[in-house]
# Entry
Amino acid sequence: MSDSKYITLISYDGFEFVILREAALISETIRAMLRGPFREAQTGRCEFGEIRGPVLEKVVEYFHYHHANRDQTDVPDMDIPVDICLELLMAADFLGLDSKPQMRDIS
Amino acid sequence: MASRNRPRPIRRPLINKEAGGFDQCWATLQSAMTDIHNKNASKLSFENLYRASYKITLVKRGEDLFNKVKEFETEWFHNHIIPGVDELVRNNLPSIALIQMTTSSSHERREAGERLLRGIRKIWEDHNTSMNLIADMLMYLERSCAETKQASVYATTIGLFRDHILKYGLKDVDGSDQPFIIMDVVIAVVLDLINMDRDGDIVDRNLLRDITGMLEQLYETDEEKENEKLYTTIFEPRFLTASEVFYKAECEKLLRESDAGSWLRHTRRRLLEEEERCVTSVSNFTKDNITGVVEKELVLAKMDDFLAMEGSGLKAMVDNDREEDLGILYQLIARIDKSKSTLKTNLQSRVMELGLEIEQTLKNTDFSTPTAAGASREAEDGTEGADKPKALSPAAQQTAAAIKWVDDVLKLKSKFDTLLENCFSNDLVIQSAITKSFADFINMFERSSEFVSLFIDDSLKRGLKGKSDEDAEFVLQKAIVLVRYLSDRDLFERYYQKHLGRRLLHNKSEIHIEKELVRRMRAELGNHFTAKFEGMFKDMELSKDLSTNYKDHIRNLGDDDRKSTELAIHVLTTNFWPTDVMGRGVLQDGDASRADCIFPPSIKRLQESFYKFYCQDRSGRVLTWVPSTGSADIKCYFPKVPGKDSGPLSKDRRYELNVSTYGMIVLMLFNDLSDGESLSFEEIQLKTNIPVSDLTKTLTSLSVPPKFRVLAKEPLAKSVKATDKFSFNAQFVSKQIKIRVPVISSTSKVEGSEERKETERKNDQTRAHVVDAAIVRIMKQRKELSHTQLTTEVISQLSGRFKPDISLIKKRIEDLLAREYLERMEGDTAAYRYLA
# Structure
């Protein structure tokens, strides 16, 4: 069955965010999640056991911002409120957003 | 959110040591790995697993995790994979090539081999898939591994596969203690299948490709260095060795059973096959190596043997114009050897052989009948108008031989030109090799200069009148080609001068074609070479003008004397014309033939008159009449013979005889005789002062052949002796009014051997002078030179004319030393200085 265009990211406190699949694939982790035979790939829903709602919200916003401006240069940084920045950092680390997207070969 | 100024403390969900501890995480991961290996992963949540490894990494126990994973995999291999492999191998083992049992058919072997390989392939693929998933799972761990420079999980697990499966030794397979390494088994099976493929069996090539692909992805160590792929380090060498063995055997078989042509085709096919195999069955990396092996074993190893084969080897290919074979041979050799040296040497020797064969054929051909020499060549010397072919005179035979030689050489040349174009794609190396061989054998043949000139002579005399421009062009080109090959150009020049002289004087060829040919020769060989010929042309034109002018002059003098003799004159500049034409040839009796012969008075008057005319515009010139050339038209009146009433003798006969100058002088003598009187040979000789040999020839032509017997000879024998008597033959009858008594020197015949020696001697003399001049010129310029340098200079300067002998140069140097043109340098006897 073909993959749907949108996937759902769910925080541990129950907030659900629907986002374009393509946009979310910047994250290495989400990419790994969605390939392979795992449950997430089948349902198109990713649950994150350690990310809070507001933090995930910011992450999703980032995905969207990145995707919208993907072809442009010199894009100004997104606005990040100071009080969630630590948690956001950890979430980014978890999701593999701190490095440039690399493709890995699956033989 | 109340305050936005301070970061909020991080609140993690409940972590207690137990729940998020190492062991629990590991337990989760372990069970997940088992599920993955069992293809049961769909129940799992990736995020859980990822988070588990994440947590472990955060507490800095990543290394432990890593080791645990390794342990798990190793154990998995041992307990779950190896038994399967073991069974696979054992089941198929009796048929596996490793033990080389020949009792099984190749079909069984193939089936068994393929089964084994399929099994291995499946294991590999499964492993690969699982490992990818596990690596994903441990992605967080890997990211931190990358910072600490440990090998990646994936690489490590691949390495585990290599170590625990491929390098695993199956024990006790055939009762011996030697373990069978699985990898060896696999590779052996692969090689066996490849060999079967080569023999024409159908094997599963995709399978082979997958296996070799697997080997390409495995490395010797976990560091995955590029040049340490198992494929390169283990598979490829064995593949190349096995292929070498295979092709060596195949080559032997070919040598025993088939011929060079099929060898070539077979080799070409194999090369294409192997290249294809690199795409379908093994990796493309191997392409150069394997084609190298094929080239070495099939092409190079036994090439000499194949080429030497009777009936199909290089000799036969060339002789029978097997262009396809030669083309393939050329392509194959070009692959392995840029200089194509074997082909080159073989061709060269073949050319030499064929060239020398031509000479041999020449000796063996009997030219005595016209058909042997080619039906189109007519005999000279007296068989004009003959209806049935008579035997050719020896001179004509020799000429025919010359022409045949040239024809054969040209044919050989055109054959090789075709081969060069069609098979060797005009390769320059080969072209120059062939040219050199041609030059070699042509120059080895002593009479080549003479023969080439004769060939040109014959073509120009014979057929170019009336031929189209194209045909003429063709012949000219061929002629120039031959001249180019000759190295003794001065000898050729000498012969050509002689033949050209004869042609011009007897008007035997078209002047514009002659000029064209000389023009081309000039372009090829340089001005000095053709200067004489051009001088000869000019002389001819001038002479024509002179004759016309003289005629006008005489007419204007008013003496319309019907008895005066018409004069058509050729004035020849001495240096341009060949010496024997000028009457300075060598005679057997050693006399100079230009001793003045006594002309009849009417002729003498004519000569003086012309001389006066000639000197009107020019002063200080000496004209010398050459009686050995030239001809005269004489009107003869034979009165009817009294006593005969019927038949031709009963009538008056008037004929116009065309005879040589000597003939004219002799015949005029008989005008003063009364009937019945005769002159003896000696008397004639005294009265005319014609040299004896020429006189003999002249009298023979006038008295021996019945057609021209205007003089009666006593005795009637065929040969003329000094004691013979000659008289006017009143009974001479001829069907024609105009009779041309053949002039003996109008044909350019092949020289007898004494003549040739003489020509060569004269040529050598000239060469000595030329070398002298060259040495002096060089030394004058350079002042001081060493012996070797001088020699080299001389040779290179004279290369356009001939190749000087080293000994000749040495002799000339010594001569010049004696004549004090040069002196030896003090202290260095091998160097010379120019003395002004």
